[in-house]
């Protein structure tokens, strides 16, 4: 994944060296590199504890 793509809208990110923040030109997201990684983690589908995994567990336990 490109480092300079907004995790929320896929827009272009500008890096502001003075504040070490990324700014999205499309949606106005303003975040540090660490915060961007956090957001990407949260938006990433199919990870442990996801809704799908919980549903599968519930479905399996019914049998
Ligand atoms: Zn954006």
Can you describe this structure in just a few lines?
With 63 residues, the protein is of the alpha+beta class. It has helices at residues 33-43, 51-62; strands at 13-16, 21-24, 30-31. Helix content is 37%, strand content 16%.
Topology readout:
Blueprint: E1 13-16, E2 21-24, E3 30-31, H1 33-43, H2 51-62
Antiparallel strand pairs: 1-2, 2-3
Structure description:
- The chain has a three-stranded antiparallel sheet with strand order 1-2-3.
- The chain has two helices and three strands, in the order βββαα.
- Strand 2 and strand 3 form a beta hairpin.
- The protein has helices at residues 33-43, 51-62; strands at 13-16, 21-24, 30-31.
- The mean pLDDT is 85.
- Zinc ion binds next to loops.
- SS elements, strand count: 3
**Which strand order spans the largest sheet, edge to edge or round the barrel?**
1-2-3
Question: What oligomeric assembly is this protein in?
Answer: single chain
* Residue-averaged pLDDT: 85
As a percent range, the share of strand residues is: 15-25%
Most strands sheet:
3 strands, antiparallel
Helix content: 25-40%
What are the defining features of this structure?
binds zinc ion; 3 strands; alpha+beta; 63 residues; single chain
